[in-house]
Write a structure and sequence with these properties.
With about 850 residues, the protein is α/β, with parallel strands linked by helices. It has 3 domains: about 190 residues, no CATH class; about 325 residues, Up-down Bundle (ABC transporter transmembrane region fold); about 170 residues, P-loop containing nucleotide triphosphate hydrolases (Rossmann fold). About 65% of the residues lie in helices and about 10% in strands. The strands form 4 sheets. A 6-stranded mixed sheet has the order 10-11-12-7-13-14, with helices on both faces. Strands 6-5-8-9 form a 4-stranded antiparallel sheet, with helices on one face. The protein has a two-stranded antiparallel ribbon with strand order 1-2. β13 and β14 form a beta hairpin.
Length: about 850
């Protein structure tokens, strides 16, 4: 056990502060902990009393989760451990002096208080506090601790300090000082941001939350999404990326990944040996070595350089081979991402698709897919190798040269990476806003082109062009801010790199002139450091690309996280279709909470029957069709087919038995044959033509110049309304479903076309269970049962004659439609009479 010696070392007194060109360690390590602990005791006690008496415990939902807060706690604990280690090392190597014991105890107590205060401020808050962030006391403590460590530079030339690194004691003291220096500095700079505390005053958050609850909104927590870091939810994003990083379904691709990683390790080793062999060539040439020795060294150097390439593996043999082998892996990743996202979008509910903006979704998919490729490539082959090169270089410089070169490299790299991350995070908001306006511009363009006819009808070309130009101008303004901030970042990086290169080169040149190093050592340092700066110079680009990729992926991740509204039950089986009996039992449904569309709807459709749904617009007729097809799930009651609840069977098996002819038929931008074949993609050409004959459109198709290969245009705009409806009927006939749903399939057509299509529909619906939503009552006279829907309820039900005899809603609707039809007929007669009167004088004059 080491006994306590005098307070200071032999020959040193507290009265002599400045000795041999520096402060005495005895004075320094007495003054600093005494001042810091006094601050902690006096102001810290006041700080604790105020928070205990006038503070209140914060609700957990207002306290942001932060990894930086965890880092603050770890650094504070590290400084406590450092104080204990420093005391033990000094006692073991130099003896236990009084100032050493004093420093260890006071410093440990001071940082324990800092930990406690940090935890207190995260748990409690002063109610009257109108600012955010840490208290002045804690910030002052961190600032003084960091400033105290900088005072060590005053004693740069003093042999009593550790700067010479001449023995084990000085080397250990130097390492512990670096721990104190960077830990206290990080605590101060992180503390300015106060990551573990709310971003705004606590009372303001409470008041906003209360107003949001009153207004039915969501609490404003955590700030607006537009200002959050691109690294937010990093673990969640990486979890989504993991399946694409490792090709689990292919052993061949897995071997390629392993081989690429092995080549990556070989590149790291080559990067170390290239400057070493270059140094050996210089030393051998200046030292007069034999030709055979020099030639072997030169050949090895050229071989290594060939493998490495013109930079840090940028275009060498190994790098090119790795890039070539990685192509298949990258293609796998891109394919899997796109296919899974496309399948996910098709699995989303009708509600989501009705509210989407196609241009924005497509743009998000394009950017998100390319960003996944960039992320994997840059993280695996750029970021990790660059960090590995930095660590290897620091270790090599410390072991081969001395600690000063390692320190210069470390400080330069740390400053470079820190400022790169800080400035790039600041630039994030510009990039995110730029993406938003880019999406907006593309969405406006796609929306305008899809509605080309409407634009022409209202002569709005100049208006659409103006809107598009305005969107581009907003995008370009943010693009300018993004590029301007990029120029600032590049200049900052160049300044740091230049300063580090200057300091290291001067120090190395000094040792060469002193005879401690050879000329080859200077060449080695210059070659290695420039080789290291090449990927480091690109590190900012790598980080920006990765961050931009995370930003670009945000919209894609939002698409991935969209929940399916209609899901198959865990134990769902296939629909066992027998006869086609449909039952609605006490069905309730609403699209939005508080506004019911269907209220206690019950009816039965017997096998082979036709049931018609009539009523005013918005009464819920089409909703019944959508619920039966299971675009939505009911919120009350149930729907059965042959006694089976459709919510308990698989959606694809349910829809396989149902055919739908919608009111607005939309065709794919393909030929007529493929549009009809879409009803059953495995159908032959003969079956397609038979379906067209049954829909009474075969002859019409043959009259086209290109027949069945005629292109229908986008959404089928090259065909008339009647032709599109007949294609839809042919498609449904080809599907051969047992249940037919007709959603006002002829409401938008003229009378003659409607009659022709009705004849085609009659063939389709023969001996099939059919539900018809009709606007023109004349088309459903022959229905087995007619349901009159009003305000989401069945107001009347029965046959055509039965409902007319009741004299209710159906009878009123029938009379109004008959009167309107008679009025139209009378108008047509008057027009014909006027035309004949105009023709009679011409005929009589011609007779004379």
């Amino acid at each position: 056990m080491v006994g306590l010696q005098s307070y200071c070392e032999a020959g040193v007194s507290m009265h002599r502060v400045w000795v041999e060109g520096g402060l005495t360690p005895c004075f320094f390590f007495t003054l600093i902990p005494s001042v810091l602990l006094s601050l902690a005791l006096v102001l810290g006690a006041l700080h604790g009393v105020c928070y205990g008496r006038y503070g209140t415990t914060m609700e957990p939902k207002y306290v942001p989760r932060s990894r930086l807060y965890g880092l603050q706690m770890v650094l504070s604990a590290l400084l406590v451990v450092q104080a204990v280690v420093w005391t033990a090392v000094k006692a073991a190597l130099d003896g236990l002096y009084g100032y050493v014991l004093l420093y260890g105890c006071l410093t440990a107590l001071g940082w324990i208080w800092a930990c406690a205060s940090l935890r207190l401020e995260r748990r409690r808050v002063l109610v009257r506090e109108r600012t955010r962030g840490h208290s002045v006391v804690l910030l002052l403590y961190w600032a003084l601790a960091f400033a105290a460590e900088n005072l060590a530079f005053v004693s740069w030339i003093s042999p009593q300090w550790w700067w010479g690194l001449e023995n084990t004691e000085q080397q250990v003291a130097f390492v512990l000082w670096m721990v104190r220096y960077f830990s206290s500095g990080l605590l101060f700079f992180i503390g300015l941001k106060a990551p573990g505390l709310p971003r705004r005053p606590y009372m303001l958050l409470i008041n906003e939350d209360e107003r949001d609850v009153e207004n039915g909104g969501q609490p404003l927590l955590g700030g607006a999404p537009q200002t959050q870091s691109a690294w937010r939810d990093f673990r969640k994003k990486v979890r989504l990326l993991v399946p694409y990083m490792w090709p689990s379904g292919s052993v061949f691709l897995q071997l390629l990944v392993i081989l690429c990683l092995c080549l990556l390790g070989v590149e790291r080793a080559i990067n170390v040996f290239v400057p070493i062999y270059y140094k050996n060539i210089v030393n051998q040439l200046t030292g007069g070595s034999a030709w055979k020795t020099v030639s072997v060294t030169v050949c090895v150097y050229v071989l290594l350089k060939f493998l490495q390439g013109g930079g840090a593996g940028s275009s060498g043999f190994i790098s090119n081979m790795r890039s070539f082998l990685w192509i298949r892996v990258q293609q796998y990743t891109s394919r899997v991402v796109q296919v899974r996202l496309f399948a996910h979008l098709h699995a989303l509910s009708l509600r989501w698709h009705l509210g989407r903006r196609t241009g924005e979704v497509i743009r998000s998919i394009d950017r998100g897919t390319s960003s996944v490729d960039s992320l994997l490539s840059y993280i695996v082959f750029s970021i990790f190798p660059t960090i590995a090169d930095i660590v290897i270089a620091i270790i090599y410089f410390i072991s081969y040269f001395n600690a000063w070169f390692g320190l210069i490299t470390f400080v330069c790299m740390a400053l470079y990476l820190t400022l790169t991350i800080i400035i790039t995070e600041w630039r994030t908001k510009y990039r995110r806003d730029m993406n938003t306006h880019d999406n907006n511009a593309k969405a406006k363009a796609v929306d305008s082109l899809l509605n080309f006819e409407t634009v022409k009808y209202y002569n709005a070309e100049s208006y659409e062009v103006g809107r598009f130009e305005e969107a581009i101008q907003k995008y370009q303004l943010l693009e300018w801010k993004t590029n301007a901030s990029l120029a600032l970042l590049n200049q900052t990086q160049n300044l740091i790199i230049g300063s580090g290169l200057l300091a290291g080169s001067l120090l190395c040149a000094y040792f060469v002139t002193e005879g401690k190093f050879e000329v080859g050592d200077y060449v080695l340092f210059g070659t290695y450091i420039l080789q290291l700066y090449t990927p480091l110079n690109w590190f900012g680009t790598y980080y920006r690309v990765i961050q931009r990729s995370f930003i670009d992926m945000e919209n894609m991740f939002q698409l991935f996280t969209e929940e399916q509204e209609v899901k198959d039950d865990v134990n769902a089986g296939n629909l066992n279709y027998r006869q086609g009996r449909i039952e609605f039992e006490n069905v309730f449904f609403s699209y939005t909470e508080g506004k019911e569309i269907l209220k206690d709807v019950s009816f039965t459709v017997l096998p082979g029957q036709t049931v018609a749904l009539v009523g005013q617009s918005g009464s819920g007729k089409s909703t019944i069709i959508r619920l039966l097809f299971r675009f939505y799930d009911v919120q009350g009651g149930c729907i059965r087919i042959d006694g089976q609840d459709i919510a308990k069977v698989k959606q694809d098996s349910l829809r396989a038995h149902i055919g739908v002819v919608p009111q607005d038929t939309v065709l794919f931008n393909d030929n007529i044959r493929e549009n009809v074949r879409y009803g059953r993609v495995s159908a032959t050409d003969e079956e397609v033509e038979e379906a067209a004959m049954a829909a009474d459109i075969h002859e019409r198709i043959l009259s086209f110049p290109e027949g069945y290969t005629t292109q229908v245009g986008e959404r089928g705009l090259k065909l008339s309304g009647g032709e599109k409806q007949r294609v839809a009927i042919a498609r449904t006939i080809l599907k051969a479903p047992q249940i037919i749903l007709l959603d006002e399939a002829t409401s938008a057509l003229d009378t003659q076309t409607e009659r022709n299509i009705q004849a085609s529909l009659a063939k389709v619906c023969a001996n099939r269970t059919t539900i018809v939503v009709a606007h023109r009552l004349s088309t459903i006279i022959g229905a087995d049962q007619i349901l009159v829907i009003r305000d989401g309820q069945i107001a009347e039900r029965g046959g055509h004659e039965e409902l007319l005899a009741k004299g209710g809603l159906y009878s009123d609707m029938w009379l109004k439609q008959q009167q309107a039809q008679d009025s139209d007929s009378a108008s047509d007669t008057e027009v014909k009479d006027v035309k004949s009167e105009k023709l009679q004088p011409s005929a009589s004059s011609g007779g004379h």
